[in-house]
Design brief:
Layout: E1 3-5, E2 9-13, E3 19-23, E4 28-32, H1 34-45, H2 50-61, H3 65-81, E5 85-87
Antiparallel strand pairs: 1-5, 2-3, 3-4
Helix pairs in contact: 1-2, 2-3
């Protein structure tokens, strides 16, 4: 499973460490905090693999891998429902 941005969505991490996803067609911006930004960066570094990204973050944060993966999945479901990402 790989998570990718939907067509027309642009991602960036702001100077303040927030994740910003912008729908270019509608001009709508979605902003997320530093935790989501870290999740997004890990997801990109791991080729879109939520499993690998959650594993990396669990190790970096010294967190329970099961809980980290669950939190990751909840966040991704929100992005999917909003039409910001797709699963390939």
């Amino acid at each position: 499973m790989r998570v990718r941005l939907e067509q027309g969505i642009v991602a960036r991490v702001t100077r303040s460490g927030q994740l910003e996803l912008t729908c270019q067609q509608a001009g709508v911006r979605y902003r997320f905090g530093a935790t989501a930004a870290a999740m997004w960066i890990a997801l990109q570094q791991q080729g879109g693999s939520p499993e690998r990204a959650a594993g990396v973050l669990a190790r970096q944060w010294a967190a329970d891998p099961v809980v980290t993966r669950r939190d990751f999945d909840v966040w991704l479901e929100d992005l999917l429902r909003a039409g910001l990402v797709r699963v390939e």
